[in-house]
Amino acid sequence: MLDPSxxxxxxxxxxxxxxxxxxxxxxxxxxxxxxxxRRIGMLNSASEEEYSKCTSPGCLRCRSNGRxxxxxxxxxxxxxxxxxxxxxAVQRVIxxxxxxxxxxxxxxHPMQQPTxxxxxxxxxxxxxxxxxxxxxxxxxxxxxxxxxxxEFSELMKDVWFRENGWKKNSTPKGHWRALYFMNQGVRVxxxxxxxxxxxxxxxxxxxxxxxxGFGNACFSVVDPGTHITGHYGPCNIRVRCxxxxxxxxxxxxxxxxxxxxxxEGRCLLFDDSFYHEVHHHGNQHDPPRVVFMVDFWHPQVTSxxxxxxxxxxxxx
Length: 316
Hints:
This protein has helices spanning 4-39, 69-82, 91-98, 135-143, 145-157, 159-163, 189-194, 196-203, 303-312, and strands at 127-128, 167-169, 176-183, 186-187, 217-222, 227-231, 238-246, 251-255, 258-260, 267-270, 276-280, 289-297.
């Protein structure tokens, strides 16, 4: 008969081997996807792969909050207790705070890597099409596309606004800038006052991520010759919407392994926690690509989960 300690050693050895195999599989899968994208022209050379993002330590979308999750969980439990809310109804949020990143590798799509928060058991798809739940908000935006386009055009005639108020994002090639109506959940009064019709349309959107540090709404402008290199969004609890306002030829977005183009007056919805990048292949004489970008709540995030997430990740 074998010594019981032999079983213990065998168990830990088998566990170690299983972890090594899982890690190898995950890394190999990621590299396989990236090599495939490079072969078909969706990913440029290694020198352009790195996405230059904001480095501000206060930026919710960029900072790592792994060390703070224990404290966040304690505060959440206290907040729900003090407000007589059912903590049992937000178990997915609790699990997200308790989950270690390395244990998510087998449950996540290999091209989905949210940088801040991953909520399990949500429908996972890189591109959203035909969502009945989001249809009302999508229709609201598409019916008012001309209004948004008109206010954007008038805005660009304003010398001050043409040069000020824009957030410029770093790209290895070209220029990408955004004029926010809502930035990480904070309403930008100057923009809303300058474009009151657009601001009013935003207020009609049922799934708009207001009161959330993950919520944004802006005019997003990409100049010709720009490459926004591949990157991942902060979370999988939102669906990002791009309403095409000005779409020259040669513009495309890749989400996961799908290469897509915008259509003027139509919405394109995707999960930005998936690997994604943007190209504007035009020359200096071409107009920029312009979309109105809005973040919607993922339809399967419940009302109480929204309450919990807004408490944990408030407007910044």
